[in-house]
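Handout, page 2. Input:
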Amino acid sequence: MFVSLALELISSVVPMDIDIPPNDSGLPGIAALKTIVGAVMTVGLILSVLALIISAIVWGFGANSSNPHLAARGKLGVLMSCAAAILCGAAVTLINFFWNVGQTV
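Output:
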């Protein structure tokens, strides 16, 4: 009895059909925010390239000086800079993918 009463109360309080799509013109400054996010993505990609170059130099110095620790740090830097570039480049696609997954829940 108590369970059915609780379910009736919850179903009457919780709305069943809400559809709120993203609004591009809801707030002022959305266009400027999109421009800023695009610029930050560009800076992230440029810094990833810089990190790749520096890490490759460190890897080369470590390999040529027979220093395995320095070479390992260079290898790790190369992998991390490539991962950062992948995340910066795929950020919009990842967000859109997870947005679409969230809409199906």
